[in-house]
Amino acid sequence: MTNMTSVNDRSLVVLILELQGESFAIETRHVHEILDPVPITAVPGADHAVDGLINVRGRVVPLADLRLIFGMPPEDEGRDARIVVIEVEIDGDATTIGIRADKVNEVTELAASSLESTPRIGLRWEPEFITCIGKRNGTFVAVLDMGRIFSRLVNRTQGITPASTSCAA
Amino acid sequence: MSGTDPTLIYRQEAAELLEQLEQALLDLEHAPGDADLINTAFRALHTIKGSGAMFGFDAVAAFTHHVETAFDRVRKGEVAASTSLIAVTLAAKDHIRRQIEQPDSASEAEGAAILDGLQAALVAQSDSTPVPAAAVTWRLRFRLPLDAVAMGTNPLLLLDELRALGPCIVVADTSAIPPIEGLDPTACHVGWEVTLTTGQPRSAIEQVFLFVLDDMQLDLEQVAGHASEPRPAAVAAAVASVRAEPSSARTTGSIRVPAERLDDLMDQVGELVIAQSRLKQIAGASRDIQVKAISEDIERLALELRDTTMGARLVPIGQLFGRFRRLVHDLSRELGKEVALVLSGEDTELDKTLIERLADPMIHLIRNAVDHGVELPGQRETAGKPRQGRIALAASHLGHEVLITISDDGAGLDRARIQQRAEEQGLLVPGAKPTDSELFQLIMQPGFSTASEVTSVSGRGVGMDVVRRAIDSLRGNIDIASQPGQGSQITLRLPLTLAIIDGLLVRVGDGRYVIPLSAIEECVELSANEDGRSRGHSFLNIRGSLVPFIRLREAFDTRTQPDPFQKVVIVSSGEQRVGLVVDQVIGDHQTVIKSLSKLHADVAAFSGATILGDGTVALILEVAHLVEQGKQHDDTRQAAE
Question: What is the ipTM of this complex?
Answer without folding.
Answer: 0.84
